[in-house]
Structure formats: structure tokens, C-alpha cells
Amino acid sequence: MVQNEAFQDMLRALAEVYEAEADPAGPHTAKTLMVTPSPVAFDAAVPCIFDRAIRALLADSVHPAARAVLLAQEILPWGGNPVEENTEPGIAAMISVLTLMGPEGPIPAPDVRLGLVYMRPDSYYPLHIHDADETYVIIAGQALWTAGDDTRLRGAGDMIHHPSLLPHAFRTGSEGFVAIWRWSGDINTHSYAFIEDDQTERLA
Ligand SMILES: [Fe+2]
């Protein structure tokens, strides 16, 4: 099926991004993604509320993974925030997450997680931490990105690594962003927690 070809092409494009990462967990994740058969027959997904915005952002990007994701978008089951129970509802509604690989699937992997995230424009996703090591790669749009003491504008092609428990936060401007993310190390989700953040009140 053409749809599944697009899906496999997308997985290859995502793997290529992490093959280039200096942290060995990046190439390990890429290899896991490539050698694990995807058991999922993806049907056309119900478009998420951000579908049009995601498509527009991806279409504007020259990143090869953005093009690959756009071609598979029709069958990608974008969802809510998987750590929603740790999150205030208003914060959870800023983003949509697509988990592609992890202990719970859809592509099974015991020791890594990988997926996509979209964050809507003009929003602030506050400082949070988790046990897992994490690497984001922005593939479309941009955000003012805080990783520990480092806050700067990040755009398509930028790779940002968050070691375990490093606080991180994202502020979007007029366009939002789409990124690939991966987790390695201790990939439990229960440690995901928001921490005190004096930037949050400025939104009110
Ligand atoms: Fe994170």
C-alpha cells in the first residue's frame, strides 16, 4: 500500500536523523527503529485538532524528515499528551504527541521511546523534568528553547539533548514547531514532572 510505503519512508527519515547523533543512544534508537518490524496496519487516522497547522508547518520546512512526515500524515495517529495525568489541562492542550516506538508500542522497544510532537503557536510549555535522557530534533517551525541555563531560539535541523533531570521548557511564537523526540536511559513516564517556573505567571 502506498500509505505504508510512506510510513516506512518516514521511519527511515527519522532514523537517519538519529544516526547522526553523537550520543550513542541516538544511533541505537535509529537501529532499533529500523530492525523492529512495525506490527501496525495504519488506517487513515482521525485528524487531530492541529492537523491543518501541522501540515502547514511541515509544508513550509525544507528538512527531509518534515517532507517524509507530511507524506505519511494521513495515517499518523496524533494524540494528546501521554503524560497528561501529570499536567494541568491548559498545558496539555498546547501540544499533540505521536508515540511511534516504546515499551507500549505501536513499534515495540524495551529500552527506548521515539515519537513526534507538535506545539501550537504563542504558547509556553513550562519547565519540566524526567528521568530519561532525551534528544529533540526540530523539523519545522521554531521555539525559544530552554535547556538548563541555555535559552535560545531553535529551528529546523537543531538537535537539543537533555540529560536526565535537566529542566527544559519551550516558548513558541507565531508558528509553533514540529519536532522528533527520543528517550533513552530510565524511560519511565511517572517521573515526568513540572517544576517551579517564574515564566508561567507571565502568561496570565
Ligand atoms: Fe522532555
| Secondary structural class | alpha+beta
Q: How many structural domains can be distinguished in the coordinates?
A: 1
| Uncertain stretches | none
CATH class: Mainly Beta
Tally of DSSP β-strands? 10
- CATH topology type: Jelly Rolls
Figure out the total of helices: 5
Tell me the helix content: 25-40%
N→C terminal distance: 48 Å
Looking at the overall shape, the CATH architecture is Sandwich
Fourth-level CATH superfamily: Jelly Rolls
Assign an overall shape: globular
Main β sheet profile: 10 strands, mixed
Task: Describe this structure as you would to a colleague.
The protein has 204 residues and is of the alpha+beta class. It has one domain (5-194): Jelly Rolls (Sandwich). It has five helices and ten strands. Strands 1, 2, 3, 4, 5, 6, 7, 8, 9 and 10 form a ten-stranded mixed sheet that branches. β5 (133-147) and β6 form a beta hairpin. α1 (2-19) packs antiparallel against α2, α1 (2-19) packs antiparallel against α4 and α3 runs antiparallel to α4 (64-72). The longest helix is centred in the N-terminal third of the chain and has 18 residues, at 2-19. It is globular. The N and C termini lie far apart (48 Å). It binds fe (ii) ion.
